[in-house]
Amino acid sequence: MTIASDDIWEAFLQFEDDADVYDVRLRESPVWERIRVDVFHQIAVAYGEHESTDSDTEGSSRWDKALHAGKAVLRGLGRHNPYLTGQHDLLVVGHQRRKQFEDGYWWDIYTDPLYQALDLDVLHAEVEHKGGHKTPAKTSGVRYLEVIRYLGYLWKEIGVGVDEVGGEELDEVRELERAVEAYFDVDVQITDLVRSLFTVREPAITLYTALLRRVDPSVVVVLVSYGREWFIEACKRYGVPVVELQHGVVHPHHFAYAFPGDRTKENFPDYLLTYGEFWNDVVEYPIPDERVIPVGYPHLERRAAQYENVATKEQIVFISEPRIGTALSRLAVRLSDLTEHDIVYKLHPNETEQWRERYPWLTEANVTVVDSDQPPLYSILAESSIQVGVGSTALYEGLMFGLETYIFDVSDTSSTDPLVEEGYASKISSAGEITPERQLDAEFEPHYFFRLGSIARIDETLREIAETHR
Predict the structure, then answer these.
(1) Is the omega angle on the peptide bond into residue 375 within 30 degrees of 0, that is, cis?
(2) Does residue 250 contact residue 257 with C-beta atoms inside 8 Å?
(3) What is the mean pLDDT of residues 154-180?
(4) Which pTM was predicted?
(5) Nearest-angstrom CA–CA distance, 443 and 416
(6) What pLDDT digit, counting tens, does each position of 53-85 carry?
(7) Rounded CA separation 40/183 (Å)
(8) Which of 2, 74, 259, 382 has its CA 20 to 30 A from that of 337?
(9) Which of 229-243, 373-387, 396-410, 437-451 has maximum average pLDDT?
(10) Is there a contact between 179 and 19 (Cβ–Cβ < 8 Å)?
């Protein structure tokens, strides 16, 4: 089947309907919801709509992976061992990517503002990011989940007591793989993916359940629920409610959250706490509307107040992302020849290590490239007057600082199209369309996107959830 690259999102949803993918189960567990994001990502990479990641191309042998897993497990057996704890009201699985701030500490920007402001009885756990953990962490008593994540993997590799998935029980999965290949003309190794994930499912659930018994929380909080389905399944079996804090842009093409029509996801958090009312309506979530609760974004609220008196310059900031960095960086270079404004190009954390090789034209242009957390993003936004990007969360955050906003129509812009539709931004296709004299068509309403009083709202909401499920 021939599909235009800009139609693959709609084609993917149509394929789901045509192939009845949600009916496929393995050992009484739904298959498609567990692999949906991974499968679409591989299709999008093949169609040039997503950038490939390290995990797409890594060629480590089983021995290398087992060695890394062994080292990670050993690292988590000491004072960071999640099992070496008592009971806590909250078990929080934080975001794996931390940011270093002026105090020298590495913050989990989604949870540390809560910990600093509230007296919470919490055990905070996290998984490694790029092979390790950032220290010193602002979070007290961080526990590492590699001891669970990789013990399950090693358990599978050793094979002792593990019921390997295979044989006839994978027949429906093989049929699903053939259907995907025929529909999209893309070879996605679905059978191997499912075999790997489901063989480790019960060992992982067993280890997570042991942690839940140890901590016995009233509520579990997660950042980034997709990829943590076995943990969420363990929580549901244990009977503890799972709450997800929004960590980024949600949009109709984000298939970890968008489940339109009668689509569903069994191993989805019980509650989703969003930044504001806007995010409640942007997609159909696989949980009832009353469990999608707007509470705000503590980190943004805190940092915006810190920079509210910063003077604005004639400065244009480009917000980069790996998937569109090549085109966006070229646009920044072209604009630098057309304007007297200063041009700042803010790289995404995943671009900082190789940007000179990927975007060599930036090195000789009249453009300031920011390839670290210094200066902080919000400092750049506060002193800028215009922002340009495609789909980054930072574009929404920039509106809090009153920036004129341009959406570069170079790729999928579904995450920021609502800003254009409601008059908060303009869509462009060339550098010449960026005009500093442009006026917003709509007055930005911060409460609609980011409710204020976020810390108190989150505290109250978590307490209400705990009481409801007591």
Answers:
(1) yes
(2) yes
(3) 80
(4) 0.90
(5) 17
(6) 655 444 456 666 666 666 766 676 778 899 999
(7) 13
(8) 382
(9) 229-243
(10) yes
What tokens appear for 66 in the block? 């087992």
